[in-house]
Amino acid sequence: MYGISCAPGAVWQDSGLIQYRIWHGDIEGRLGLALAHPLYYLVAIGARCIPLGEFGHRVNLLSSLFGAVAVANLFLLMRLWLGRTFPAVIAAVTLGVSHAFWWHASIAETYTLWAALFLGELICLLQYATSRRAGFLYLLGLLNGMAVAVHMFGSIPLACYVVLIVILLVRRDIRLKDAAIVAGLWIVGALPYEYLIARSILHSGDLFGTLSSAAFGNRWRADVLNTTVSWQMAGENLLLIGSNFPTPNVLLFFAGCFGLSRSRPRAFRNVVLACGALFLLFAFRYTVPDRFAFFIPFYCLAAILIGLGAQEIASQIHHGAVQWVIVALSLLPPGVYAIAPQLAQRMNVRMGTRQDIPYRNDYEYFLRPWKTRYVGAERFATEALEGVEDSAIIWADATTAPPLLCVQEVKGIRPDVRIVSGTASDEKNPPLTEQTIDALLAEHPIYVVSRTPGYCPAFVLARYSLVPAGVLWRIAERT
To answer: What is the b/e burial string over 368-403, where b = at least 16 CB atoms within 10 angstroms of the residue's CB?
Structure first.
């Protein structure tokens, strides 16, 4: 399903930037170490070398593959835990068709690989809690180290595992040697991230700055450490959560919470509860515009509780029809996603997104998780590059620069055109600033992608006219 639904080529914004970094073999990026995700890029760069299909499609398919592994891991986790197939199916389907998870399994993103590793960690934790074999803790340490090397999400369960290891040591359930092996394997798993941190410290000599970059990125410290939530933000978050489970089965979450309170093994239950609470708290007060993606870890745990809730209901109501009704309701979300764009557009629902990107209907792009045959980003980039004069300069924002660069470099279209952006651009390109624009404009035709404030330089809007030119706007002197 994910393979069919994934985008066939270049994509917008962060996902396009991922494609661009993979094309260049860049495992660090320019946005700070917290956004480096080096292990994902090492895997993706390897996949880039496989001569099957188009480059952008191959990269997108990685997210599909990892998403499928994550769903399979969730099924296995539930089947091992509860010993029944029914709750495992409900949990797996619930996560598999949840909006944000499916959406990120259709484009180039890091979240599905992280989810596959995290759910693998929970399998190891469950196996340790039921067998008391230290080898499962060793594997847990390795997987969590790898997860941290994919995304800093992994630091939240890491804190829970550290508490668990300390408790096990105090109770003498494990030896100090076991804890040392877990720590050693964690270090091995996190090596790609540790390498970037060590290299940054050696090159910059700035220990505090490097650690801040590793924890928060270049400019997200205030968002990560935010402690206030407005009523508007709380309402938006509840809508985000509801949009991922648009089915009456969402009520099974509360039955699952009740079931979790008396479930065994206790160590597994406590870690699931702690991780769920911490992931929800983190995402709920996170203030970045695309925070809908940061609820994905919570959705993984919510799917576990919904599966557990389904088992609780089935064990109380001994009628086969109940299970079939729950299964049918678990398949309801795709139908909701299919009609949601038309309903939202007809009702003039405010999406909170920009509406000026060519070949992208934001209602369809954001409300439908599948990207089957979506070529809007590639079409825009091709027309923009082919529609400008020789040696033209295109100033693009963070959404549109990545597909422009990917199409230009991967397809070899118009290498003479220079693309300038603060997020992703060729280092050889001149900076387009208030001080340089007059000299550049005297020698080159210059275009911007948008005339919307915030997506076009303020000094351009204040001092120049913008003339429509296909999918772009040409900068011209005011008369």
So the answer is: bbbbeebbbbbbbbbbbbeebeeebbbbbbbbbbbb
